[in-house]
Predict the 3D structure of the following.
Amino acid sequence: MTLDVIYGESRHRQIARRVSEVLKLAADEGTVYLGYPVLSTAEGRVHVDALLVSKDHGLVAFQIADKMPTSLQPWSKLIDQQDRLYSVLDSHLGRHDELRRGRGLAMKIETVTVFADPVKPPDTVEEGHYCSL
């Protein structure tokens, strides 16, 4: 199998393409949706810059950071964005019985924030991933 890439309207087109190129090296099969999924909640829309769906990797949602955080307040905002993205995906997908196994989803959900440059998240970060390409 191959890794298919589906192109939508990305807010960060060039970086999203680079994410798909890196994912082609890491995943042998599945589908990457670039700028395609936009989920709506009662509080508004949640953008997903890239979404990898793969049997080996599960569901990995990528957000591309607009800028490098320089203090705890911007980090807190990025962490909140990842938490919201995870929650929205879990809630949205959890409504579909065919995607559930027992009480939870049949696949693992991971969230990643991608930066243009190398980054080190605060030591307090326990969930989610924060990295450069």
Notes: The mean pLDDT is 87. Residues 72-94 form the longest helix (23 residues). The radius of gyration is 15 Å. The chain has one domain: 3-132.
